[in-house]
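> example.struct
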């Protein structure tokens, strides 16, 4: 994986002005971008759940039944032959408590330690978006200075963390922000062999999806919080959670695009970070590994 992550490649790929336009993406262009950086593709993807929130499903999917549902708090690990990349970074107990809003929710301290070890051992760290359960592990941690040099944040993510963080614990100062690798791109950014960042503001200004194609040819699309449950993709339904503010037009465009891929691309696994049912199923089927290496 040496010479793999060329952060100097901050070219604006497939540039077309996005302002005042509905969000769009093209899977063929994304596949092409995944082949731009030479080298061996990842071998597998692992996932680890370290905490959860207990919320009825109607909050995750508009119009869904008011029935018990689990939102998994997860990280992903892209494993190469000679190292790995982490996608999202976990969070400590203090940040986790924020999401319970006064209710104590499950937090697996041992799994959280595994996440911490994996993040420290990673060659690079990406985050799908700038919310605490995804980014706190590289900010609200005693190892922040150590991790900043290998953490890639987008310009939009940093802007939110500087000016409008979800919680005080993840607020960046200008000095701290300067320690991270900050990238800016228009639409797609090749990150390494088989890995492409896809700009997808909507859930947050800095949201992005991450496309991964393995050496085996198996394809993945890590969509972060574009949908909290895959029923949002399957039924093209947004969230109904009053505590979040989203760009609904952008999100509906993203859900429509993902729905089309879900129906037609049978070798492409679309993965929502918080869908505990999907996580369990994909582990059972061998699509995702159930431990961090």
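> example.seq
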């Amino acid at each position: 994986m040496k010479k793999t992550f060329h952060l100097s490649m901050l070219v604006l790929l497939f540039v077309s002005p996005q302002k005042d336009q509905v969000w769009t993406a093209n899977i063929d262009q994304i596949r092409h971008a995944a082949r731009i950086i030479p080298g061996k593709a990842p071998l597998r993807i692992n996932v680890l759940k370290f905490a959860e929130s207990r919320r009825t499903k109607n909050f995750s999917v508009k119009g869904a039944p008011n029935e018990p549902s689990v939102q998994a708090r997860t990280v992903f690990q892209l494993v190469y032959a000679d190292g790995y990349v982490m996608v999202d970074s976990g969070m400590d107990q203090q940040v986790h408590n924020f999401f319970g809003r006064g209710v104590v929710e499950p937090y697996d301290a041992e799994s959280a330690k595994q996440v911490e070890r994996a993040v420290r051992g990673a060659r690079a760290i990406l985050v799908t978006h700038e919310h605490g359960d995804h980014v706190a592990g590289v900010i609200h941690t005693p190892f922040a200075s150590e991790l900043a040099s290998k953490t890639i944040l987008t310009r939009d993510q940093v802007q939110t963390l500087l000016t409008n963080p979800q919680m005080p614990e993840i607020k960046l100062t200008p000095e701290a922000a300067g320690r991270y690798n900050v990238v800016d791109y228009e639409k797609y950014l090749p990150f390494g062999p088989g890995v492409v960042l896809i700009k997808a503001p909507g859930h947050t200004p800095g949201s992005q999806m991450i496309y991964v194609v393995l050496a085996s040819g198996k394809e993945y699309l890590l969509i972060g919080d574009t949908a909290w449950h895959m029923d949002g993709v399957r039924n093209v339904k947004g969230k109904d959670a009053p505590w979040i503010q989203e760009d609904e037009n952008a999100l509906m465009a993203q859900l429509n695009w993902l729905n089309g891929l879900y129906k037609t691309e049978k070798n492409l696994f679309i993965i929502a970070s918080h869908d505990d049912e999907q996580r369990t199923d994909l582990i059972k089927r061998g699509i995702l590994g159930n431990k961090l290496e």
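> remarks
The radius of gyration is 18 Å.
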